[in-house]
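Can't attach files on this board, so I'm pasting raw text. These are the components:
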Amino acid sequence: MAKPQTLYDKIWESHVVDELNDGVYLLYIDRQLLHEVLSPQAFEGLRMERRTVRRTSATLAVADHNVPTSDRHLGIEDPESRLQVETLSKNCEDFGVPIFDMHDPRQGIVHVIGPEQGFTLPGVTLVCCDSHTATHGAFGALAFGIGTSESEHVMATQTLRSHRAKNMRVLADAPLPFGCTGKDLVLAIIGQIGTAGGTGHVIEYCGQAFRDLSMEGRMTVSNMTIEGGARAGIIAPDEKTFAFLKGRTMAPKGEMWDKAVAYWKTLKSDEGAVYDKEVVIDVPKIAPQVTWGTSPEDVVAITDTVPDPKDAPSDAKRSSMKRALDYMGLTPGTRMQDIEVDNVFIGSCTNSRMEDLRNAAAVIKGRKVADGVRAMVSPGSTLIKQEAEREGLDKVFMEAGFEWRESGCSMCLGMNPDRVPAGKRCASTSNRNFEGRQGRDARTHLVSPAMAAAAAVTGKLTDVRDLMK
Amino acid sequence: MEKFTKLTGIAAPMNMINIDTDQIIPKLHLRTIKRTGLGKVLFEELRFHLHGGEKADFILNQKPYRDAKIIVAGDNFGCGSSREHAPWALLDFGIRCVISTSFADIFYNNCFKNGILPVTVSKEDLDALMADASDKEHPELTVDLETQEITRPNGPKVKFKIDEFRRECLLKGLDDIGLTMQKAEKIDKFEERQRESQPWLYAQG
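---
Top answer:
C-alpha cells for the assembled complex are below.
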C-alpha cells in the first residue's frame, strides 16, 4: 500500500513540474492574484525583458490597499497612491490581465474577492504578493504569499521554484465555547505556538472546531496562519466548501462542476498520515481573545491581566515584552477590561465578511458607540457591502454611531487615509498589532468583530459574553 | 542581480527578536512603483523621530554603524508582510547580509532574489557574533559564501549552510526566470496533463 499522505503532500505532488536540484522543485501555479502595491515592479521586470503573462485567465487583479473608503467618486487624493492604482490598471491593460478597478462593482479586498468570485478553488495552488494569501487555504487550496520577484516569475512561467515545506497539524477537536469565533481560535493558536511556531511548515487545521466553522470563520483562521509563521494553512474541503462555491461566477458549472466536486472530495489527508509537528489545542479553555502587545503572539483572554515581563521565558522575550508594554502604554497587572479605547475598526481580509458584520451588528443593535470613540466598518468587498445594506446592517451600524465605509484594506495598515492617530488605542478586527501598523505610534488590540463591537459601545476592551446574555 | 561571493564589512548589532517587515520599511513607502531609493527610509520609525531628526540611540545612527553592510539580529527576522521592499530597502542602504537564528520564510526567499545573503546560525554563534558587532572598535565580519563561513575579528570562525541551489544562484547572480523558461516544454506537458484531468481549471482558456 502507498504511504499515507497529508493533504499538503497530495496538492504539492500533483503540481510538481520538475525537480531542479536537491530539494528544489518547479511547482505549477494554478492561480495568481495581484494588487496594486506589490505588483508594479513585477510588471516592470516583465517589460524590461520583453516577457508576457503566460496565462492571463489564471490571473486576477484588484485595487484594494490604497483605495479611499469614503467619497470614492472623487478619486484618490494622494498622488503616490493614485499613481500606484493607475499603474495597476495600465499594466493589466498592457498585459491582458483581468482587473477589478476601484469603481468596479466586484472590487474588494483581494483575499475576499478571490473566494467570492469562485476564482479560489479546492486543490489549486494559489499565490499572491501578500502574506495573507494563506486565507484561501480555507478552501483546501495550497495558498501562500510570495515576493514581487517571485510574482514576476509566476507571471512569466506559471511556475514557482519552491522548497517542500514540512507538515504541521493543529488539532482542535471540540466545539468552540460560547462567545468565541474563528478569530478567538486562531489568536489562541498563535498564542500557543508563537509567531515563529509554524516557520518552514504548512499547517493543516483538523478537528471539530474547524469543521463547525462557516467558510467565513475558516477563512479567518487560515488568514492568520502567517501570523504563526507558516506560509499556508489548509482546511480539507467539505460540503460547506462546495455549497459556498456553487454558482459563483468563476466556479465550474454543470457537468464540469460534478467532475470537480468528485475530485475535491478526494482532497483530505489519509488515515495514518505523519506530520512533522503536531499541536493540540485545548478548545474548551478558550475565552474571547485580545492582544496586549506588538506581536500577534502577545495574546491573552479578555478576563486576564496585562502580563509581567518578569515572568518571561527568556531574556530575549523579556526585553521584547518591555519594549511592547512601553509602546502600548500599558502596566503589568492591569485588567484587560479596564483598558480604554479611542478607535474601533471592523474590516480587513481577516474579518470583513457577512458573518463578521452580522456578529458585530448583533452586539451593537440598540446600543450607541461610547463618547469619544471613533468607530468604522469597511466591508470586505463592494458586493458584501451591498448585501449588508440589503439586510439593513448599514443602518444598525450608522444608528449606533459607526462610520459605514467602502471596501478596501483601510485601517488594517493605513496606506489610504484611514489611520489611527499617534498614541491612540484601537480595538481592531485586523491581523497585525505591529508597531506603527495602523498608523505611526498607534496602539492596536486585535479582537473578533463581536469583541470590537463590544469595545465600541462600552469605550473599553470588554468581554462580549457580558453583552450577549 | 548582483553576485554575492565574499563580503567584508561593518556588522550592526540589533538585539531584538521578531523584527518585522513593517519595522524594516513602513507601509507609506510601499506606494512607490520602483525598487530603488528606499535606503533613506529603512527602519524609518526606529531611526527617525515622528517630526524628523535622527534618534541618537538607534544603532544605524551611530558611528561606525552608519556604514554597516551586515546586520546581526535576534530570532525570526523579517516576519510579517511579504513586501519585497524590505530587502530592497536593506540593499539600498548598503546591507548585503543579515545574520540571525531564524528568518521568516517569505523574507528569506526575497533576500535571495535580490543578492542579499540571510545567514542562519545557532544561538551560541549568534551571541558571539552579536558581541563582535557590539565592539565599536572592531565590528567587522567577513562572510564568505564560497566556503560558508564567517570570519570574526577574534575567536573561531563560524560555519553556516545555504542550500546548494540557492548558493549557486547567488554566487553567479543568475536570473532564474530565464532558467525556468528553458523548462518551457515540461511546463507545456504539465498543462496538457492537467487540462485533461482537471479541465475546470482551464474553462476560460
